[in-house]
Specification:
Structural class: alpha/beta
Shape: globular
CATH class of the largest domain: Alpha Beta
């Protein structure tokens, strides 16, 4: 009912049936078609729902454009929508009024606090790989974060917290607070590394960050995706947590010397394509863009969304 009311008020006339179709629930909001436009209201996680909206719209016949309505994250949605060849308009819902969304700029590059850099050697010597993302220095084992450098909010001192995710780091500190940091980290490295292998049996430690393990594999063998070299790069928006799967980014050069952006994902993620084109635009707008997914996740809907992008997108199936 909310979507119908918003569209009716915006168009200035009642929605006939036909040609308008009834509003349909599509998991993250509601959708309908009217006057040749697919109207989609995003209620749940709008910042991660542009792909779902476009997937729905791509199945509707005789549409000329797409209109996205949301109450939050509209700046990111507008930024991503502009990268598609299909005309997409993003609106902010302000009560019963639709206002054109203003595109968000990309986050400024954040450098690691110089006081945090002293922990980089500790991370390396314990057997972990230093990784920085949006100014945060962490240590990883084949894509799984196992420690993070933080600044104490009360004392302003820096420390290296050991554990997988914020809750695990807090629990680890309570249980092993008196153990030397380097020794504690080395113990976690030993416990984790055996689970971050292609042939390892299923375990929570290889289910977490599966897309980042895929990126680690791609960086070890860049020639398999047509690259000469690749390195880890920031995502276009900071990762909210370690638990929820989110595509991850690498940048480098192709075998022929062209700039290249690679985005890795595990599981069928409807927002992979919008995320990936956003990453390319942030790092190198003219770069080759390649998506890398496991064979089981190379879905038809991903290919449909790739075809809607204004500039070419490649796909590599990782087997």
């Amino acid at each position: 009912m909310k979507l119908k009311a918003l569209v009716r008020d915006h168009l200035g006339h009642d929605l006939p049936a036909p040609p308008a179709e009834p509003a349909n629930s599509f998991g993250r909001g509601a959708a309908l078609t009217a006057d040749g436009t697919a109207w989609v209201l995003l209620d749940e996680q709008p910042e991660r729902s542009l792909g779902a909206a476009l997937a729905w719209a791509s199945r509707q016949p005789a549409l000329t454009d797409v209109a996205i309505i949301a109450e939050s994250a509209t700046g990111v949605l507008a930024r991503r929508a502009a990268l598609f060849g299909t005309p997409i308009t993003v609106w902010v819902a302000v009560e019963r009024l639709l206002v054109p969304a203003v595109t968000d700029p990309y986050p400024a590059r954040a450098e690691v606090d110089p006081r945090h850099e002293v922990w980089r050697t500790v991370i390396t010597e314990a057997g972990a790989e230093p990784a920085q993302e949006h100014g945060v220095l962490a240590g990883e084992i084949r894509g799984l974060e196992i420690c993070r450098v933080v600044t104490d909010a009360y004392t302003d001192e820096t420390r290296l917290e050991v554990g997988v995710g914020a809750h695990d780091r807090e629990s680890f500190m309570m249980l092993h607070g008196n153990r030397p940091t380097a020794e504690a980290l080395a113990g976690v490295v030993d416990a984790v590394v055996g689970h971050r292998r292609v042939d390892a049996p299923l375990h929570p430690l290889n289910r977490l960050g599966a897309e980042r393990f895929l990126r680690w594999q791609v960086i070890q063998a860049p020639e398999r995706v047509g690259a000469a070299w690749l390195r880890v790069a920031d995502p276009p928006v900071p990762r909210p947590n370690l638990k929820d799967p989110v595509p991850c980014v690498a940048v480098g050069e192709s075998a022929s010397g062209e700039p290249m952006v690679v985005v890795c994902s595990v599981g069928i993620d409807l927002d992979l394509v919008p995320f990936a084109v956003d990453a390319r635009q942030m790092h190198a707008p003219d770069a080759l863009l390649v998506l890398v997914v496991p064979e089981r996740d190379a879905s038809p809907v991903t290919r449909r969304l790739m075809a809607m992008v204004a500039r070419p997108v490649g796909l590599v199936v990782w087997a």
